[in-house]
Specification:
- The complex is a heterodimer of chains A (about 160) and B (about 800).
- Chain A is an alpha+beta fold and about 160 residues long.
- Helices cover about 30% and strands about 15% of the residues of chain A.
- Chain A has a 5-stranded mixed β-sheet with strand order 2-1-5-3-4, with helices on both faces.
- The radius of gyration of chain A is 16 Å and the shape is globular.
- Chain B has a 7-stranded mixed β-sheet with strand order 3-5-1-12-9-10-11, sandwiched between helices.
- In chain B, about 60% of the residues are buried.
- In chain B, helix 14 packs parallel to helix 15.
- Chain B is about 30% helix and about 25% strand.
- Among the domains of chain B are: about 160 residues, 2-Layer Sandwich (Aldehyde Oxidoreductase, domain 4); about 250 residues, Aldehyde Oxidoreductase, domain 4, CATH 3.30.365.
- Classes of the chains: A alpha+beta (about 160), B alpha+beta (about 800).
């Protein structure tokens, strides 16, 4: 349990190093070691999606991936979406406009899944947006505001 | 239209869909949830929980756990003896002549555990992982005792006792009567009877419970960051147990709490233990609930069994209601939910004779509390099931039967004849239920939907339409307060006690304050949930904050404006009546050059610099005003829902075709936020109707303690909700507001139950138990086929 390994990875474009216990999850590495607390832990069994981050561009559960599995890989978190919180991305701005956020605990993971999905398909239908969001649980919004936010972005032709 | 925050819109900010100021930090990963707060030197706690629902604790051996490197402490009941006082009694019965019976409970169980998951010891270590390793090394020896895992089992003769000193498991027995129900039943042309069951469920806010405590040795006091809905209630418990004055216990709900939905309004042993450990170790100690712990230790609600009976005439007019039900209160809990259920059953209907009776039973399950809706969805389900059955019996349309019984719009205030949960009479303040129903049916294109249903049924397809309408007691007191001040930067700072868990108080409170003081929204800051910032508060639950804190902000804001203008009048040598606040300055009306900027005015009013050593006569010191608003009674919101759905009778799968919501919560401060609350409520209601169920075996062991066994709806399951608002302002507070936080949840199980039964009418299926999982629907169809 105390076996450790040195790993090197890229987080939001920055090279990072850490010596981690083999059992440490990726989300705990991001939150506790790198103090990137935007990714949240909602269930620790891969269902709720609050911890979703991108690894080499793919949306993954930060609670199911071990930190050592991210060795040598490229990790993106919600903190990397915009350099300046005062300047939101078009997707974030649509979330504000359509009230896609309430408590905000699940939001980071949802933004990361949407970011990956919109890179693959910039013009999703409502059904496709729902499919992307189906990997996430939100107890506040009923999802409608965030779906409308994405659809507004698509209609507007903006990049996320 | 989106209102700009930097200019005062025509007519003010109240009522405008102002975008939330909370959003930017949450969308960029810079929120301030309890587990996100930097806390240097923090130690991590893990809880040792009972594996039995009812057992004597014979021995706890922590030798191996204590020996693990990195472990700082393992504590049991004996170690925390200095704070092992009995927990104070919770809410008294609001119904005169009835009482609530409290068993003696301690922070850690002294002799026996009363639910599987109850904390029996706490471990603290240098990391959470180590604390959890050590937790698994703590050996607890139990002597298992017989278990009462349902209200029925707990109320049976000879049932194992949850609290030996009570002699039985009855937590409360409350009867409320209106008119002469027995006579009405005896002489009625028609009566109908049904048994309606609703199962247990949880809140499952995406963030679980969590608390960090720091003990300050110099001040002999605590600072506690707690993901709570009620920081002042947590302070009250801590000051009682630790025997400290209020000013030495500061409880702060962080600005961001990841959902609450009821359970975070209760106080739990973990909050107490973390404080004790922080004092013992002289280090901050943190405990963050994981999802499994939330399943087995956070408060739940909903489980009730109703024996309901109605009497009605040949035209479908209600003559009497008899509702006798049990409520599973778990091993600890307030009577909030069952009292509210009883009062919610009569709903929007004129019912001259009522017998309402509840037995709340202690069981060997985890504590009960309130979960979004707090007893109301059960009440709506019970009444609306019977309205559907009455329609069926008389061959009338379900919407028509409802319309015939609605309280008319000119009958307000309307006295139902009962006592509500707040201790005041159940008197509806305002509403227009016929119009609400009419517009809901219109939006749903109800007549057309019925024609389509008939066509589909002719093709053998199972389309159903459910209608549900309800009244919801909201905005409960006793009070909420607000302190407003003009700080040295010339900004209005609003402080109020109740903390948000996603409801956008920072935005809505700022809207009210900006209008009350007469400043720009951008000139207002909002502080919530800090017991050091405002001495008293109640908390965020019972859809109560806008109707309590809102008027307090309005009143304090008006008083602050007066003080600002008084200083302005002195400086500008003008009458206060001739002054206005424009673009961050107090000016003489009509003379835009004669003004004083708010920061300068704040320095004058708060520090007196320009006045020399003595304040001029008549000028009050301090640009600060506080107000506490205490409503005389609850307000009453209303909802009408129409659900159109298809059922696959083979698989039991339900597909929602349309979902229409009509909602009236009086005046609306921010429609964006209110609509969001309704949508979230509908999702929770749909989850209660179709998916989630906290299942226990007869030994009180949870059989659904992960999201794999306890499904919540995702965006794939949620339908698009179509919504409209009706506005009947409340006369009981100066904003005319009611409450909207739970509203969406209430009628959903009733509307879905009605629609599913309607869809399966060709099979003669009877829906009387929620939730309606696909398996259960399929079973209902097969049972109906088998019996026909």
């Amino acid at each position: 349990m105390s076996e450790t390994r040195a790993i090197t990875l890229t987080v939001n474009g920055q090279a990072r190093q850490a010596t981690v216990e083999a059992r440490l999850t990726l989300v705990d590495l991001l939150r506790d070691e790198f103090r990137l607390t935007g990714s949240h832990v909602g269930c620790e069994h891969g269902v709720c999606g609050a911890c979703t981050v991108l690894v080499d561009g793919e949306a993954v559960r930060g609670c199911l991936l071990l930190a050592v599995q991210a060795d040598g890989r490229r990790v993106e978190t919600v903190e990397g979406l915009t350099a300046d919180p005062a300047h939101l991305t078009p997707l974030q701005a649509e979330f504000v406009r359509h009230h896609g956020v309430q408590c905000g605990f699940c939001t980071s993971g949802i933004l990361m899944s949407l970011t990956a999905a919109l890179r693959d398909n910039a013009r999703p239908t409502e059904a496709e947006v729902r499919e992307t969001l189906a990997g996430h649980l939100c107890r506040c919004t009923g999802y409608q505001g965030m779906i409308d936010a994405v659809l507004a972005l698509v209609a507007d032709g903006s990049r996320p | 239209m989106i209102a700009s925050a930097s200019r005062t819109p025509e007519g003010g900010y109240i009522g405008a869909p102002v975008p939330r100021r909370e959003d930017a930090r949450l969308l960029t990963g810079r929120g301030t949830f309890v587990d996100d707060l930097p806390m240097p030197g923090v130690a991590h706690a893990a809880m040792v929980r009972s594996s039995h629902a009812h057992a004597r604790v014979r021995r706890i051996d922590a030798t191996a756990a204590r020996a693990l490197p990195g472990v700082l402490a393992v504590v049991t009941a004996a170690d925390v003896a200095d704070i092992q006082k009995p927990w104070p009694a919770r809410m008294p019965s609001p119904v005169p002549g009835t009482s609530v019976r409290h068993g003696v409970r301690h922070t850690l169980p002294v002799t026996k555990v009363r639910h599987a998951g109850e904390v029996v010891a706490a471990v603290v270590a240098e990391s959470r992982a180590l604390a959890e390793d050590a937790r698994d090394l703590v050996v607890v020896e139990y002597e298992p005792l017989p278990v009462a895992a349902t209200a029925a089992a707990a109320l049976a003769p000879g049932a194992p006792l949850v609290y030996d000193e009570l002699g039985d498991n009855v937590a409360a027995h409350i009867v409320q009567r209106v008119g002469h129900p027995e006579q009405a039943f005896a002489s009625a042309p028609h009566t109908l009877r049904e048994t309606v069951r609703v199962m247990r469920g949880g809140s499952h806010s995406m963030e679980g419970r969590g608390v960090v405590a720091r003990y300050d040795e110099a001040l002999d006091g605590f600072t506690v960051w707690d993901a709570t809905q009620a920081p002042h209630a947590v302070r009250a418990m801590l000051t009682y147990l630790f025997e400290l004055p209020e000013h030495r216990v500061r409880v702060i709900a962080p600005p961001d709490v990841g959902g609450g939905l009821g359970p975070k309004a209760s106080v739990y042993p973990e909050e107490v233990l973390v404080c004790w450990l922080a004092r013992q170790l002289r280090r901050p100690v943190k405990w963050i609930e994981d999802r499994h712990e939330h399943f087995v230790s956070a408060a739940q609600e909903r489980e009730q069994i109703h024996e309901v009976e109605i009497a009605f005439d040949r035209e479908g007019r209600l003559l009497a209601l008899r509702d006798v039900f049990t409520h599973d209160i778990g091993m600890y809990g307030a009577l909030v939910a069952p009292v509210i259920t009883g009062c919610t059953v009569p709903g929007p209907y004129r019912i001259p004779n009522i017998h309402s009776e509840v037995r709340a039973a202690y069981t060997h399950l985890q504590p009960s509390g309130a979960v979004r809706g707090a007893g109301r969805p059960q009440g709506v389900l019970v009444m609306e099931r019977m309205m559907d059955r009455m329609a069926e019996t008389l061959g009338l349309d379900p919407a028509e039967v409802r319309a015939r019984n609605l309280i008319p719009a000119d009958a307000f205030p309307y006295d139902v004849g009962m006592w509500f949960r707040d201790g005041a009479r159940l008197v509806y303040d305002s509403g227009d239920y016929p119009e609400l129903l009419r517009r809901a049916l219109e939006l749903a294109d109800y007549a057309q939907a019925r024609r389509e249903q008939a066509a589909l049924r002719a093709q053998g397809r199972c389309r159903g339409i459910g209608v549900a309408i309800c009244v919801e007691g909201v905005g409960l007191g006793p009070f909420e307060g607000a302190v407003l001040r003009l700080d040295g930067r010339g900004r209005v700072v609003v402080t109020s006690g109740a903390p948000p868990q996603g409801q956008g108080y920072q935005t809505a409170f700022a809207q009210i304050a900006a209008d009350a003081v007469g400043v720009r929204l951008d000139d207002v800051d909002v502080v919530t949930g800090d017991t050091a910032a405002i001495p008293y508060g109640i908390g965020s639950f019972a859809s109560r904050v806008t109707a309590n804190a809102g008027p307090a902000i309005l009143q304090a804001g008006a008083a602050l404006r007066e003080k600002i203008l008084a200083v302005g009048a002195h400086v500008l040598e003008a009458a206060a009546a001739d002054l206005e606040i424009v673009d961050g300055a107090v000016r003489v009306r009509g003379l835009p050059d004669r003004g004083v900027p708010l920061p300068q005015l704040a320095r004058l009013g708060n520090a007196g610099t320009a006045f020399g050593m003595v304040m001029p006569g008549g000028l009050a010191v301090g640009l600060e005003a506080s107000a506490y608003f205490a409503p005389t009674q609850a307000g009453y919101s209303a909802s009408a829902h129409v659900c159109i759905l298809d059922v696959d009778p083979e698989t039991g799968e339900v597909t929602i075709v349309r979902y229409v919501v009509g909602h009236d919560c009086g005046n609306v401060i921010n429609p964006l936020i209110v609509e969001g609350q309704i949508l979230g409520g509908v999702a929770h209601g749909l989850s209660n109707a179709l998916y989630e169920e906290a299942v226990y075996d007869d030994q009180g062991q949870s059989l659904a303690s992960s999201f794999l066994d306890y499904p919540l709806p995702s965006a794939r399951e949620m339908p698009r909700v179509e919504m409209f608002h009706l506005t009947t302002p409340s006369p009981i507070n100066p904003l005319g507001v009611k409450g909207a936080g739970e509203a969406g949840t209430l009628p959903v199980p009733a509307a879905v139950a009605g629609a599913v039964e309607d869809a399966l009418r060709p099979f003669g299926v009877r829906v009387n138990r929620m939730p309606l999982s696909p398996g259960r629907i399929s079973d209902l169809v097969h049972a109906a086929r088998g019996s026909s």
